[in-house]
Amino acid sequence: MAATKIGMMDSAYFVGRNEILAWINSTLQLNLSKVEEAASGAVHCQLMDAVHPGVVPMHKVNFDAKNEYEMIQNYKVLQDVFNKLKITKHIEVSKLVKARPLDNLEFMQWMKKYCDSVNGGILQHYNPLERRDASKGGKETHKKAAPAQAPFKSSSVTPKVQSTHSARKNDGNPAHVSHKTSKPISDAGAQAYDEQITELKLFVDSLEKERDFYFAKLRDIEMLCQTPEIEHLPIEAIQRILYATDDNPSVVEEAQAMVSQQQNQQQVLSPILEASDEKPKQETQKRKNISTLEVDKASISTATPRQRLSDISNSPLTDC
């Protein structure tokens, strides 16, 4: 499918983290708060099971995987599914199991793009809870997701009851009331700080990945410049730019001047090279003429007197 071959500049890789989490939680009825919580590979397997029912052996998927070797087993199941469906997407298991936010976000962005491309992202009669029961740790995942949703439902009721009791007990102590009401604000601030830290981690990871990408390109160019087959090219100009220690525009100007100077030298040397090519040709022709004369002399000297008389009789001078 087209989703298996998408570039890094595709719109799929610009989908936000919150949208990805909302899609995972609504599709599989989970309660993930971070994308890296899906680093075990079990969520990826069930997402493929949702769009391709019956293809994924869910009894081999481990939702309780915590160690890397357990996570690798889940990714082996996912790779087998990719092979069955002839999906050419490369799975960077060594990076995903490290639970790095950026790597897991990018792979999950690709997963969403692929799942949306299958039947328009519409899931028909899929029960994620029932399918997850066949997996190892699937029932424990239900228990973790259910209590996490319960406080959100009862949170609208319990604060009112607590506030009425605290108001009755602390009518004469307004300072104590203000201290009680400041707790939710601090919790909200801590959550905002956590989100900001996660965003900064993603930003740093993206910068590191971009740095490694361009460094690899520069390293390839450097290795190419060291090959002897391209010595006639302006390699010094390229190396001048590669090894520049600061962002100075004069470096580029110097490199361009070196290229133009080498082109001018090649234009001046071209007629000299042509003349030098003609000299060996003339010398070889002279050598051929000399060699033929030497062969004729040798043949005359080695001929017998009878052969010489026959040659003279056959010459055009005797006919006259």
Can you describe what's shown?
Residues 276-286 have a biased composition (Basic and acidic residues). The protein has 320 residues and is an all-alpha fold. It folds into 2 domains: 2-148, Calponin-like domain (Actin-binding Protein, T-fimbrin, domain 1), CATH 1.10.418; 203-294. It has helices at residues 17-28, 42-51, 68-84, 93-96, 101-117, 128-133, 138-154, 158-169, 174-225, 235-242, 249-302, 305-314, 316-319. It starts with 16 loop residues before the first helix and ends with a helix.
Short characterization:
This protein has 320 residues and is mainly α. The protein has 13 helices and no strands. It folds into 2 domains: 2-148, Actin-binding Protein, T-fimbrin, domain 1 (Orthogonal Bundle); 203-294.
